[in-house]
Design a protein that fits this description.
By secondary structure, the chain is an all-alpha fold. The protein has 20 helices and no strands. The chain has two domains: about 60 residues; about 325 residues, Proton glutamate symport protein. About 80% of the residues lie in helices and about 0% in strands. Helix 5 runs parallel beside helix 9 and helix 16 runs antiparallel to helix 19. The longest helix is centred in the N-terminal third of the chain and has 35 residues. The two termini are about 35 Å apart.
Amino acid sequence: MNRAKDEQRAGRGRLGLAIAGLVGLGGLAASLGWALGWPGAAIVGRWVLLAGACLHAGRRRSLTAWILAAMLVGAEIGHDWPQAGVSLRLLSQIFIRMIKTIIAPLLFGTLVVGIAGHPNLRHVGRMGMKALVYFEVVTTLALFIGLAAINLTQAGVGVLPPEGLPPAGVTGVKQTISDVVLSAFPENVAKAVAEGHVLQVVVFSILFAVALSLLPEARRKPMLSFAESLSETMFKFTNLVMLFAPVGVGAAIAYTVGHMGLGILVNLAKLLGTLYLALAAFLILVLLPIALLAKVPIRKFVGAIAEPVSIAFATTSSEAALPLAMERMEEFGVPRQTVAFVMPTGYSFNLDGSTLYLALASVFVAQAAGIPLSLVQQLALVFTLMITSKGVAGVPRATLVILMGTAASFGLPEWPILAILGIDELMDMARTSVNVIGNCLATVVIARWEGEYPPSPASEAAASGSSGE
């Protein structure tokens, strides 16, 4: 037995050395090829390096490692063969469509079980109020960080209207407060599901769960059992779809690099840099202190969210990461009823990255147009954007639609927004990732606030017993 273990250990050691050798050789060849102007050597070197990364992912047998390796391979395909990269978009669209089929039944099942199966509806209401207070405080802090960043860098000052602006591809939507409130309530549940209105599905599910909880036990139990079976099935469905995640994510990155090219980074680089630095500041100055105050184990938390965040980054859709994020937070130790209530609600009210982006982009538009805005005017503009953007997390670049409509309402021109289109996908990757990180952290914080995290040994035993059935 010991000899077999020693041989396995030696085999892993040799594989590790081979992988390190491939990565080192590939990196050296790529660097020399770039420095000496030998594009062929640079390409070969990069692919050797990628082969090492893929072998490492196979050795780890981790979905996170495979997704990261697929992102690197996708970026290389998009760079070396742009047309092939663009044609791979079909695979990423298949992946996103499969994910979207999970959203509505998963939200319905988990919310009904979390609310109707809870012995105390007052507790659910109290948790909801705490969640909304937390969401608004954090998104307001994101808003101010975005305003501070764009006013410090002045990224829009001096920007001239570029020639041959691309068509918008979207139409600005002007929304009043009444429109926002009305859009939260579905007129047709099937239509809400078909059109992917996450907030409407959440509202219907909550009302349905409350109504179910008012029924006698004999009437309530069959529907509750159905909802519990449905949610369990959708989690298993998620696990099946995630087997395709490396392919879908790699294809998404290949398409992005293939149709945009890496040269797009040069244009509007100041705005892109401002956004990434502002999002990093938000993570460090807001979310990290919150996590430390809530005594969240940072390393374990980062490991839990790595897969959903990488999916959100590649697909530019928070909705694509929702099922896996919910599953990972439950595995992290947050009770299912808390995950089922806080996570979907956060996808409508806790858009940290999108709020920061809207604050930054709206002032950029005014700066580029040469329209000075006072602090009061800036606050009025970004608070309007924050309200009208509720419920857009599931739609890639939907914030652009909201931005165009609100800019028109405030008399701002459209051309700076069209200029942003060139790098909007790169910006969307970052803000969507922050949306997912913020919502995952929110579930842990609310659970801690309710005294449900870390889970008690009895609840952990019950959870492991139910998952093993």
